[in-house]
Write a structure and sequence with these properties.
CATH topology of chain B: MetI-like fold
CATH topology of chain A: MetI-like fold
Distance between the termini of chain B: 24 Å
CATH architecture of chain B: Orthogonal Bundle
Number of helices of chain B: 13
CATH class of chain B: Mainly Alpha
Strand content of chain B: under 5%
Number of strands of chain A: 0
Structural class of chain B: mainly alpha
Order of helices and strands of chain B: HEEHHHHHHHHHHHH
Radius of gyration of chain A: 23 Å
Number of strands of chain B: 2
CATH superfamily of chain A: MetI-like
Helix content of chain B: over 70%
Helix content of chain A: over 70%
CATH superfamily of chain B: MetI-like
Radius of gyration of chain B: 22 Å
Order of helices and strands of chain A: HHHHHHHHHHHH
Distance between the termini of chain A: 29 Å
Largest sheet of chain B: 2 strands, antiparallel
CATH class of chain A: Mainly Alpha
Oligomer: heterodimer
Largest interface: A-B, 81 and 76 residues
Strand order of the largest sheet of chain B: 1-2
Shape of chain B: globular
Chain lengths: 265, 269
């Protein structure tokens, strides 16, 4: 290996370490026995996990976040898949330009989105409600689903649907029996992204969630702004573990489909 | 129509409120006014905040190119197994909550944090360095959060560059550096531009990171919007700032889409 290669690999290894270590460092901190943050922790304990799991307020916030993330991910997947399907089939340039509209939630700075949603909810009385949180997260999750499903549909040969329909299946059955199984990995990855985006969403919920329906992220943000509470370390470790498991599942799903469809050359 | 439900959600929750904000930004006491925009010329806080935000976005974009290009380059050249390992290491932070990462940097960078205790403990410095509650901490965490947005489009573009092209360049007598500069780099530019646009525009809208790591000294546009609503209840001011920020974002996308198609930036093509 040439010297320049060694230097390049060394540099990249350093960058990767810089990416990973800050996230891994939270794990030992979460088992610390101390009230202040010291590394390595002077003693070990589970007190910050107990502080999290034993607190009614944290548990309520966790429940709110989970319900919002699951329901909004499912809704975003249904609406987004339908929209991507229509966008993929259309011949009209006008309809295709609507795609940009569906990607808008990714482009608009999140604070502006939050202010906008707040304005609407203040008018219709959806502030501090579950429905409001779910709807906002459906909107924010749509771009991920539409993007992922469009990529999947591009590889799908539409003539198969024609064949199925010429054999007497209606549109719905054709979609579920022929199309969906083939684009399933894209749909699942879109749904996972929508879920992660919803569970991670902070700024919009700072504006619109409140009272009983405060999200986990809103509570974490407020706690972090006031003081560095080690309880956050235990919550962060659990959240990171969940992300990691989901990422592994997504990777496994992608690999299995690759195997079952045979490697592309 | 299958598109209708999704469009309805986006139009009602995003497009209409944006138009409403634009309308509000030119209204005061029931009449037309440009007073909210005049403040951009008269109040130094306004243009200084915009200036600081654009400067931070430029620094972050440059740094993500410097750090992200080598990572994508190495990942694209590795065997499939190893490139998956590298990409997983890039994706794990990508999938970790922004709050978690801001918290991690607080732990690392604070006055008696890990980096400062390591540096003072080893005798390299006498007094702890001021690493957080300033622009340095904000920029560091922002680069950490946005690096994946640079690596992923770069990797996707580099993977599509045929190996025969660089081999042809080498067989025609080009030195490795020459081949890289004349063949590989230009072909990877579309991915780089896509990554740069995403990183730049996302930084312009950053809120959580400067709020938690800036310590009140790093003031970005998003914070100006939220302060005007939460603290001063100044909807006119908040609207005009939002409109100016939106126009900046749209102009950037518009300009760049002259170079590469919008769908490519967003990864749908």
């Amino acid at each position: 290996m040439s010297l320049s290669r060694v230097l390049l690999y060394g540099f990249v290894t350093l960058i990767l370490a810089w990416l990973i270590i800050p996230i891994l460092i939270i794990l030992p901190m979460s088992f610390s026995g101390a009230r202040f943050l010291a590394f390595p922790p002077p003693s070990w304990s589970l007190r910050w996990y107990e502080a999290y799991l034993g607190s009614a307020a944290w548990m309520q916030a966790t429940r709110v976040s989970l319900v919002v993330a699951v329901v909004s991910a499912i809704l975003a997947t249904i609406l987004g898949t339908a929209a991507a399907y229509a966008l993929n089939l259309t011949q009209s340039r006008l309809v295709r330009s609507l795609q940009a509209l569906l990607l808008l939630p990714l482009i608009v700075p999140i604070v502006i989105t939050a202010v906008g949603v707040f304005l609407v909810y203040a008018q219709v009385g959806l502030l501090a409600s579950m429905t409001g949180l779910i709807l906002a997260n459906v909107m924010l999750g749509l771009p991920y689903v539409v993007t992922a499903v469009l990529v999947g549909l591009r590889k799908f040969d539409h003539t198969q649907e024609m064949v199925s329909r010429s054999l007497g299946m209606n549109r719905w059955r054709t979609f579920f029996a022929v199309t969906l199984p083939q684009i399933r990995p894209s749909v699942i990855s879109g749904m996972l992204f929508a879920f992660i985006s919803a569970i991670d969403e902070t700024v919009v919920s700072l504006f619109i969630s409140g009272g009983e329906n405060q999200t986990l992220t809103k509570r974490m943000f407020t706690a972090l702004r006031d003081e560095i509470d080690p309880t956050i370390a235990s919550i962060s470790s659990l959240l990171t573990a969940i992300s990691f498991i989901l990422l592994m599942l997504a990777a496994l799903a992608a690999r299995n489909t690759e195997r079952s469809q045979g490697r592309e050359a | 129509m299958l598109l209708a439900p999704a469009l309805l959600v986006v139009v009602v929750l995003l497009v209409l409120p944006l138009l409403w904000l634009a309308w509000q930004s030119v209204r005061q006491d029931g009449g037309f006014t440009l007073a909210h925009y005049e403040r951009f010329l008269t109040d130094p806080v306004y243009w200084m905040t915009f200036l600081q935000t654009f400067r931070i976005a430029a620094i972050v974009t440059a740094m993500t190119v410097l750090l992200g290009y080598p990572v994508a380059y190495v990942a694209a050249g590795l065997s499939q197994r190893w490139s998956i390992v590298v990409l997983t290491m890039v994706l794990l932070p990508f999938w970790t909550s922004v709050l978690v990462r801001a918290y991690a940097w607080l732990i690392l960078l604070q006055r008696n944090g890990i980096i400062n205790s390591a540096l003072t403990g080893s005798g390299l410095i006498d007094a702890p360095l001021k690493l957080v509650n300033n622009e340095f901490g904000t920029v560091m965490a922002t680069i950490h959060i946005l690096l994946p947005f640079m690596v992923l489009p770069l990797y996707a573009t580099m993977k599509k560059i045929p190996g025969e092209l660089t081999m042809a360049g080498a067989s025609l007598g080009g030195s490795p550096l020459h081949v890289f500069l004349r063949v590989f780099l230009p072909l990877s530019l579309p991915g780089m531009i896509a990554g740069m646009v995403l990183v730049f525009v996302l930084t312009l809208g950053f809120y959580i990171t400067p709020e938690l790591l800036g310590g009140g000294r790093t003031y970005m546009v998003s914070m100006l919007v939220s302060r005007n609503i939460e603290v001063y209840n100044e909807w006119g001011a908040a609207s005009s700032i939002s409109v100016v920020l939106m126009v900046c974002v749209f102009l950037i996308f518009r300009l760049v889409s002259l170079l590469i198609p919008f769908e490519r930036i967003m990864g749908t093509r």
